[in-house]
Amino acid sequence: MFYIVGLGLCDEKDITVRGLEAVKGATRVYLEAYTSILMVQKERLESFYEKPLILADRDMVETQSDEILHQADQLDVALLVVGDPFGATTHTDIILRARALGIPTRVIHNASIMNAVGAAGLQLYQFGQTVSLVFFTETWKPSSFYDRIKENADLGLHTLVLLDIKVKEQSDENLARGRKIYEPPRYMTIPLAVKQMIEVESDRQGGVLHPDNTLAIALSRVGGGDEQRIVAGTLADLLTAPQDAFGEPLHSLIIVGKRLHHLEVEYAEAFAVDRQRWRTVASSIYGCALDD
């Protein structure tokens, strides 16, 4: 049996009982280590699970999956992923490969940012399409995310924006020369994400991401107890807030939709950079009826 086991969002104790049983019964256990990050080291997982873990990087998962799936039709093999197994298309792909080889598969779900984003106080059924925002370069500034945010905004829906991470990435030169030299890990921050969004808004002029009139909520280390951070405000507020206000990576961002309920405003107000401005924009721009 090939198991894909969700680890949840925080540490070694977030695994489900069903997931832990699968890990303990597996002959080989792989830890997928590039689509997201856990808040604890591999050694803590190994100690708690009482199993050695094999790190599975991008190359192994995407191009060497045969190694992971070897004899999984005869033995139990587990692949551990941060969050929920279906949070990344990579994991869908490896399941399809397993099925093609006649290997039975089982998915064990867990919490992910897709549902834990409710910690910001916004109603989950008011979210539209989730988008990803990548690091811009001098020559590559993809802006298709803007179209998806606009589609959500036109329906009054919130947008969850997942910020880019770069783990085990090669420079163009090293890639061209075939050198296995990797760049240091990078994680996109909230201020950089907002800066890039405002840059695209300046080009598009669609009024979707106006710095002073667009409400947004920044999140980091959701589910991480004392490490969790939630910061609410206009895009301009988030752009100028001190970096340490947002906590450690991973960071995510919510663009608030116009179909905003007063309870959402009141809940998120506790996280606002400026509570009065949060309420004023929610009332005057978003049309949300609030008690004085």
From TrEMBL:
InterPro entries registered for this protein in UniProt: 4pyrrol_Mease, 4pyrrol_Methylase_sf, 4pyrrole_Mease_sub1, 4pyrrole_Mease_sub2, Dphthn_synthase
Catalytic reaction annotation: 2-[(3S)-amino-3-carboxypropyl]-L-histidyl-[translation elongation factor 2] + 4 S-adenosyl-L-methionine = diphthine methyl ester-[translation elongation factor 2] + 4 S-adenosyl-L-homocysteine + 3 H(+)
Residue ranges of every copy of the Tetrapyrrole methylase domain listed in the record: 1-238
Pfam families to which the protein is assigned, alphabetical: TP_methylase
Keyword vocabulary terms for this entry: Methylation, Methyltransferase, S-adenosyl-L-methionine, Transferase
Enzyme Commission code: 2.1.1.314
Superkingdom, natural source: Eukaryota
GO molecular function list: diphthine methyl ester synthase activity
List of residues binding S-adenosyl-L-methionine: 9, 84, 87, 112-113, 163, 222, 251
Pathway terms, separated by semicolons: Protein modification; peptidyl-diphthamide biosynthesis
CDD domains per UniProt: DHP5_DphB
Biological processes per GO annotation: methylation; protein histidyl modification to diphthamide
Function: S-adenosyl-L-methionine-dependent methyltransferase that catalyzes four methylations of the modified target histidine residue in translation elongation factor 2 (EF-2), to form an intermediate called diphthine methyl ester. The four successive methylation reactions represent the second step of diphthamide biosynthesis.
Record's subunit section: Homodimer.
NCBIfam families attached to this UniProt entry: dph5
Family: In the N-terminal section; belongs to the precorrin methyltransferase family.
Protein name from the UniProt record: diphthine methyl ester synthase
Natural source organism: Roridomyces roridus
Upper taxonomic lineage: Eukaryota, Fungi, Dikarya, Basidiomycota, Agaricomycotina
